[in-house]
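The authors assume throughout that readers already know how a fold can be written as discrete tokens. For illustration, here is how one protein appears when written out as sequence plus structure tokens.
>
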Amino acid sequence: MKKEILIATHNAHKKEEIQQILGEKFKVTSLTDYDIHDEIVEDGHTFHANALIKAQYCFNKTGKPSLGDDSGLVVDALDGRPGIYSARYAGNHDFSKNMAKVLAELKDQQNRKAYFVTVMCLVDESGENYFEGRVYGDLTQEIRGEQGFGYDPIFVPDHYQMTFAEMKAEDKNKISHRKKAIEKFLDFMK
């Protein structure tokens, strides 16, 4: 029997990406599947705190093992911004505006180093556990590619020539920050 994991999101892209990475042993559900539409206030000051807030909320609502994640883009030349504010850096979940703001702020910067980070928190009957993944790379000068979501069209991972948005989903999912966090989660679940 598949083990159900409730992902604390309404983002269909994220649910699909996590299901692809987790594979057949797990049934990934989301807040939408449970018809939970309350806004979860992410008022933590770290990725870890926000991941816990989401996972704890879902577990309290459903009693199902719940995985909250907080992800973001951390840019060296911007002193770590957008960081925990990645989804609402220039407009709430308006990633075209968010990317435009980052690119504008980096206009005269030579240092374009950045990394994506995902912190996942599993809350279940036994408590809370954290899993972190990072992928390092550089930011482009312009938007490139149609795949993915978020900042994918401006992020080129180290050792690659294309952005996450130019990659096939299965190729991105082999190296992504979310994949690295989920691998740690899978090791824990063994």
About this structure: The first helix runs from residue 12 to 22.
